[in-house]
Amino acid sequence: MSLRSIFPGKNRIQNTERFSAMKKTEVTRRNFLKSLSAVAALSAIAAVSGCMSGVSANVRKKNKQNILFIMTDQQRRDTIRCYGNDKVQTPALDSLARSGARLTSCYTTQPVCTPCRSSIITGKFPTAIDTWENKRPLKDHSTSWLRILGEAGYKTCYIGKWHLGDGDKGPDYIDDWHGYETGWPHWMKDPKTNAKRYRPDEESDYAINFMKKHKDVPFACFVSYYPPHTKKIAPEENMKLYDGVFKNRGQHMYHAMVNRIDWNVGRMLKFLDESGLADNTIVVFTSDHGENYPHRWNKHHKRLCYDQSANVPLIVRAPGVTKPGTVLTQPVSSADLCPTILDLLGFGVPGEIHGLSMRPLLSGNVKGWREDVFIQNRPIKFKDEMMERCIVTDRWKLILNQKRPPELYDRRAKVKDSDNLYGKVDQEIVDDLFERLSRWGKFVSDSLVDELLTKYKSV
């Protein structure tokens, strides 16, 4: 049976042509996704049934939903109260989670800015599109969900940090550009009053005005906050909230920045409610990667496959799809966001992307969802000999590094990523993870995976 006969015209994971050239490696859609049951496959087909495929898809004539996509920079999952941290106050995000779905095991494709951002936009893994490090601009925008929506008639807006190259003017397919490349100060001057304003406050105002202006047409509004990325600076009122809560000054400031973000998220959600747009607007909240505190072996704020750096928050409220208070523990990837957005809005998903639409999962069809996700990583800038790859399942996390010993962690352990069990568990477990890693490597054309497996299988 051909791939097209299984997924007729909707090759959501990979296209037939690409995999025909890879038959020697024994990789097919079926054995790559052997963890998926027929139920999941049928659900995936149903989710896009009746929609045109590729970038030429048209906006649905009915149910023209909007999307508000909110992304922070360098935000750990556990900075949000609904993820189990009682020390913090994030009422708006907690409310969003209660009204939609909270995903606990969303992993970045690569825990550093440009690589993951490119995956969120295109649905592809960084090495496949040559964005595997900062300052390697995204050149192929063919599967950008913002481009696809814009060409279909959506009013598109991008606000905040871009970090995919040429961010001062942005790609020409975005109607309303209010972005910058990277590294701008958290505080800015109001041109009218010369008073200082916290940048996320101004960006949220811009988002609200954009949505207000285009409330009668379908819109896609992408808000990309720079905080809580370093330098850690927060308004005094948010700092006071955590006086005596966090002894470390950096963590105090970090959580205060998140609290300010939460306040701004609340303002945008309030606008959606009061304008009558809430029932017709998908809201997504996530981050590109986390923050290492305490610092681990690479002495960096990120760039590790441990949960503090790689496990990011993901909250989705999709009217008509998500049920209030849904909590999903299945592993998902930042690369899944692009196909999910397109699918939720009624578009076909380009066949060459790596991500998988989460629509079946978000609607409650958890049976048969993919069992693992893949992470690429370059732990230290300018050191290509320290590259690593990681596979994450519901139970295990395996990390293979070019120089460091292998690491295997039980994700059900009370303290995450602390007790290396490599060499202490049944070899069958390791062999299964090796096989999963191998399939992912072939799927995304990542030659380093084979190099690492060859090295450690022989040990």
Give structural notes.
With 459 residues, the chain is an alpha/beta fold. It folds into two domains: 66-362, Alkaline Phosphatase, subunit A (3-Layer(aba) Sandwich), CATH 3.40.720; 383-459, Arylsulfatase, C-terminal domain. It is built from 15 helices and 15 strands. The protein has helices at residues 3-6, 16-20, 29-32, 38-48, 91-99, 113-122, 145-151, 199-213, 236-241, 249-275, 307-310, 337-344, 359-362, 427-443, 447-457, and strands at 66-72, 101-107, 155-161, 176-180, 187-189, 196-198, 219-224, 281-287, 311-317, 326-328, 332-333, 372-377, 388-393, 396-401, 407-410. Strands 1, 2, 3, 4, 7, 8, 9, 10 and 11 form a nine-stranded mixed sheet that branches. The protein has a four-stranded antiparallel sheet with strand order 12-13-14-15, with helices on one face. Strand 13 and strand 14 (396-401) form a beta hairpin. Helix 5 (91-99) packs across helix 10 (249-275). The two termini are 38 Å apart.
Spell out the key features of this protein.
2 domains; 15 strands; Alkaline Phosphatase, subunit A; Arylsulfatase, C-terminal domain; 9-stranded mixed sheet; 459 residues; 4-stranded antiparallel sheet
What name is given to the CATH topology of the largest domain? Alkaline Phosphatase, subunit A
CATH architecture of the largest domain: 3-Layer(aba) Sandwich
Number of domains: 2
Which residues sit in consecutive blocks of at least 5 with pLDDT less than 50? Answer: 1-31, 33-62
CATH superfamily of the largest domain: Alkaline Phosphatase, subunit A
- Count helical runs: 15
Structural category is alpha/beta
- Could you tell me the number of beta strands? 15
Give the amount of beta strand, in percent.
15-25%
Give the termini separation. Answer: 38 Å
State the share of residues found in helices, binned by percent. 25-40%
- Cα shape: globular
* Rg from Cα: 21 Å
Largest sheet: 9 strands, mixed
Rounded mean pLDDT score: 86
- Note the run of SSEs as H and E: HHHHEHEHHEEEEHEHHEHEEEHHEEEEHH
CATH C-level class of the largest domain: Alpha Beta
